[in-house]
Amino acid sequence: MLNPERLNLLVQLQALKTMRAVADVSRLSVSTVSQQIATLEKEIGRPLIERVGRQVRLTPLGNELVDRARPVLNDLREIEDMACSESMEVRGAIRVGAFTSALAPLAAPACAAMKTRFPRLRIVLNELEPDRSLPLLDAGQLDVVFSASFAPATGKTGEPEARGRMSLPLLSDRLCAVLPKSHPLADERSVHIEDLADDIWLQEPEGTYLSNHIRVLTERAGFEPDTAGVISSYPAVLQSVANEFGVAVLPWLATVANVEGIGVVPVEPAVSRTVSLVTTSSQLSRLAVRQFAETARELAEELRIPQ
């Protein structure tokens, strides 16, 4: 019988692309990962990886083996959870990944509610953007992921397709202008991106999916923002706006912190993103994961998002 731990390393390699990445998440040395996969190849009698320059990739057989092994490995985790308790109570562990603006209003409250309801359940929450958390989900290192994607203004959804993923929509968030209270538009019901063309902006670092999307919007509006600060922390952005250092455009979820001295004004025409809980079909068969998904859905329904 094939060793499940070796199969799991191959699953991780398909998702994470490099031996080093697999070694880091598995807390093994690169040489150990390489040796374990080589042993798996000997057991099967055919190559599962091939070198392309300095990189490695899975052979067609390796990819097929991963596709077949992933649900089996998830089933083994489910059996392990079931075996922990004859009463079938919710216990075991759930590993959660959540992007920054989902942490305070959704992810952390969902984890806290689950821990209160099911004290024997262990939950680990990781702050990760979707481009990092989704590959870890594919690699079996996370169980559920809060993800977000804009409508395809850029021609891309921002969320690559992958076999075995299941996406459960939670809510539709929208972009808002974050303005100092002294700004002439701070009390308006809505603003257009071009209304902010003469302002000083605060933005996320270049290359994030939000900054990429806003760049497309401002280019369409015919201007390039005059940027005074590049800040990745949303609370720092909100406080900087309150101190009249600049303006920002953020998803509404990123503005829920109680910061005085700012106005949050929806952008028109509406620019929305879908916030989803992403897991796998095998993980969703676990009672704990289904309960977590239901808890997240209930919390999302309680949020009053501008329409």
UniProtKB/TrEMBL annotation:
Keyword flag Transcription: yes
A Pfam family that the UniProt record links to this protein: LysR_substrate
Keywords: DNA-binding, Transcription, Transcription regulation
UniProt cross-references to Gene3D superfamilies, sorted A to Z: Periplasmic binding protein-like II, Winged helix-like DNA-binding domain superfamily/Winged helix DNA-binding domain
Boundaries of every HTH lysR-type domain copy: 2-59
InterPro entries reported for this sequence: LysR_HTH_N, LysR_subst-bd, WH-like_DNA-bd_sf, WH_DNA-bd_sf
PANTHER family assigned to the protein according to its UniProt record, in alphabetical order: LYSR SUBSTRATE-BINDING (PTHR30346:SF29), TRANSCRIPTIONAL DUAL REGULATOR HCAR-RELATED (PTHR30346)
Family to which the UniProt record says this protein belongs: Belongs to the LysR transcriptional regulatory family.
Protein name: LysR family transcriptional regulator
Lineage summary: Bacteria, Bacillati, Actinomycetota, Actinomycetes, Bifidobacteriales
